[in-house]
Design goal:
mainly alpha
Length: about 300
């Protein structure tokens, strides 16, 4: 049987269920956590829109090429409304996310985006799928989001009030976009007709049709130096191409609200890289916040 076709089966207990569901999502989140550090090496003149459009535009083309003909089968057979919703959500996400970080700061933009995504995902699943939310998920989400708030309040300077408000609103838009395209991908995957590479290739390849023109308009400074080209290649291949293949595989066996909660590992990885690679310093509240995120992730992973 081809790897591009997913045949629904009962998940195996214990280790197998973890390795096929939460583990790929956690690995993807860890790779996403490297984006902020990588972006610090981009030319100073490169704007947020160009970095976001390059990351998911070129990455989307890469995912589509890796999927090959299986992505075309998704485009031909999946509901048009679902595909359009997913592609437009993907196109909005990087533009809103990187602009949020540029206006409100990397830490604030990251945590607002990822902290709001589990809430949006839960609302989407409740409204569109009728999923009943339980108290354990609510506790895990509250602990992880609270940990994220502690992580960013320790010595973070918001700058001007207007930029902080605009950045926060854009972060919320990015969180909603992330939740929506995750839900669309999971919905198509659980139909059982297509594999994760095919679905991700079709969705992200379609989004690239919107993102690459944005890059053509804004991306000159990013490609003006060899370092900028290297940063673009890394962002497109690793935290975009590889990470979203892992994320799509994990979505087969992980509810969207749980997957988006697990993605809160990303700001922890970003903060640790900031300390040990970039040379930033974190105070006691930030370390306490990371511990809170860790506790929340454990609550999600140990649920029955």
């Amino acid at each position: 049987m081809s790897n591009d076709v997913f045949t629904p089966s009962r998940p195996a207990p214990g280790r197998t269920r973890f390795t096929t569901g939460p583990l790929p999502v956690l690995l993807a989140s860890a790779l996403w956590g490297t984006t902020g550090t990588a972006a610090t090496y981009a030319p100073a003149s490169a704007g947020a829109l160009s970095i976001g459009a390059a990351t998911m535009g070129f990455g989307g083309i890469l995912l589509c090429l890796v999927a090959g003909r299986s992505a075309l089968r998704v485009l031909r057979s999946a509901p048009v409304g679902l595909l359009l919703t997913g592609a437009l959500s993907i196109a909005v996400y990087p533009l809103a996310f990187y602009s949020s970080m540029a206006l409100a700061g990397v830490a604030v933009g990251t945590v607002v985006t990822l902290g709001s995504a589990p809430v949006f995902a839960a609302v989407v699943e409740r409204v569109l799928d009728g999923v009943r939310l339980d108290g354990r998920w609510a506790l895990a989400a509250a602990v992880t989001v609270g940990g994220g708030v502690l992580l960013i309040t320790d010595g973070v300077q918001l700058g001007d009030a207007g930029g902080a408000v605009a950045g926060t609103l854009l972060g919320l838009l990015a969180g909603l976009s992330y939740a929506m395209y995750s839900w669309v991908a999971a919905r198509i995957l659980r139909g059982g007709r297509h594999g994760s590479r095919a679905v991700m290739g079709a969705m992200f390849g379609s989004a690239a049709l919107v993102l690459l023109p944005v890059f053509a308009w804004t991306g000159g400074p990013l490609l003006s130096t060899g370092v900028g080209v290297a940063v673009t290649a890394y962002l497109a291949v690793v935290p975009m191409g590889l990470a979203y293949v892992l994320f799509g595989a994990g979505l087969r066996h992980t509810p969207v609200r749980v997957a988006t909660t697990l993605s809160l590992l990303e700001p922890v990885v970003a903060a640790l890289l900031g300390v040990f690679v970039v040379g930033e310093r974190l105070g006691a509240m930030a370390w306490l916040g990371m511990a809170g995120i860790g506790i929340g992730l454990v609550l999600v992973l140990t649920r029955r």
